[in-house]
Amino acid sequence: MSQRELQRRAADTPSEELAEILARDGCVVLKDFASEDQVASLMADLQPFVEATAQSRSDFSGLKTTRTGALMARSPRCRELAIDPRILGLVETFLGPYANTFQLHVTQVIRVLPGEKAQTPHRDRWAWSQIFTPPDVEAQVNPVLARLMAEIEPQLNIMLALTDFTKENGATRVAPGSSQLPDQAQPPEEAFVSAEMTSGSLLVFSGSVLHGAGANESEHDRIGLNIDYTLGWLRQEDNQYLSCPPEIAKDMDEKLQALLGYVTGGPSMGYFTPPLPAGEDLSSPQRALQLPSKPVRLDANGRLEFVE
Ligand SMILES: O=C(O)CCC(=O)C(=O)O
User: Fold this and answer.
1) What is the pLDDT of residues 92-134, one digit of tens each?
2) pTM for the complete prediction?
3) Whose CA is nearest to atom 4 of ligand 1?
4) pLDDT digits (tens, 9 = 90+) for 279-299
């Protein structure tokens, strides 16, 4: 596989045109998606959480990388970005054939620190088909899930540059067109392009394209704001019900509540029954946002009780 150019488009390009590029290449850059002021406001929201985040501890996640999550709970500006109509339009166009509802999958600030090495190229959709193995043991794959995931597009990602992304500071490396290759294919180094972009620009990439963070050989941090979307019927990578529980989600925009998972997917997916008091009935997930948050627990005999 030879190198294919990474396509770049204006931020207001119609979603149908972008979805075509994504279907062919698996990636596209949207220039100047956010203004300098928007980037500064995002940074202001996120800085305290990013500064307090310890470095990751695995070879894959990076030993000189910090990953800060729970962004919907933590940042009003991230909430606005997650439901930006340009992004939601593209999510619906690109993932639309494979689901009736969509949800947030990952929300994470990825800060690549000076001295970090390049991340192993991977496809994000492998998260559903790889079988969990201890660190240092070669990943095992469920072949049925791998085949199913390759037949659909299960995921769409955005990476907003909060600093400039350069080859030197660890811009995401992506292999345009690799989304078409079988899982076993290992494209050569030359097939990868550094998604260089100025802060405020956005890399959009599918769960099928081979990519990874680049090595940071500069003296400055590379900071990207990563929000991933997936199909309503797949398990979320970052469990949004825990990262953004009902007592926080209850005052948010309805579109965002739905993306967090507080919506019924189709006729019956995702309902729940409030465990107390007795007599509560099957309820839509939206009801969890309206209930008074009265804590419950199991007593010494394993019986459910309200905490008084
Ligand atoms: O930070 C990046 O540029 C990409 C990170 C990534 O692909 C991952 O952590 O799965």
Assistant:
1) 999 999 999 999 999 999 999 999 999 999 999 999 999 988 7
2) 0.96
3) 213
4) 999 999 999 999 887 889 999
| Nearest CA residue ID for atom 9, ligand 1 | 61
Relative to beta strand 211-212, strand 202-206 is unpaired
Please identify, by atom number, the ligand 1 atom nearest to the C-alpha of residue 65: 1
Contacts of 134 (CB under 8 A, 6+ apart): none
- Whole-number Å distance between alpha carbons of 269 and 282: 12
Q: Any residues with Cβ below 6 Å from ligand 1, and which?
A: 110, 119, 172, 211-213, 224
Please tell me the distance from the alpha carbon of residue 142 to that of residue 22, in angstroms, as a whole number.
26
CATH for 8-238, among 3.40.980.10, 3.40.1390.20, 2.60.120.620, 3.40.50.2300? 2.60.120.620
Q: Where are the domains of the chain?
A: 8-238
